[in-house]
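ARCHIVE CARD
Drawer: 12
Card no.: 0347
Subject: one protein chain, sequence and derived structure
Cross-reference: see card 0346
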Amino acid sequence: MGSVETVALAMQTVLKTVANRAAKRTGFQQRQSKLTGSAFVRGLVFGWLSKPQATLEELAQAIAAGGVTISTQGLDQRFTPQAAALLKDVLEAATGAVVATSPGATEILDRFTAVYVADSTVIALPNALRAVWPGCGGSGHSHGFGHPTHRARQALSGRQNRCYWEWPIR
């Protein structure tokens, strides 16, 4: 199996199996529903891939393309802390899957007992999340704000060794 097929298979697992398990674990899905974790995540991922500034209506249409009908109001009500936790879990699993299936990585990385890749990225967040994630960057409203993430992965296995959100001291 080629590298494209390997990554595709890993992503299918993440977007289906992992998303459904994470939906139950995070409390996003508490009862039997047509809107599974997988349907929610796939709709958002493919909706935003198609149009990064997609409206709720466009995201609801992307979810409907996957076979689940949901109103824009219903979708809006699903954006909860549990949904954020679900998306975080899926993002971590997707990152691990890509690292674990990277072509040629095994041949190079097998020479070492461990290889750690560290990343520090500031993610721009909408102003509506200012109270939830105070972030960093600028003291005035005109500067906006971002949220720093720090992550370290053991590249040999793709298993995450450490992931945390850093809260700035105010």
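Annotation on reverse: The first strand starts at residue 116 and ends at 124. The longest helix spans residues 3-26.
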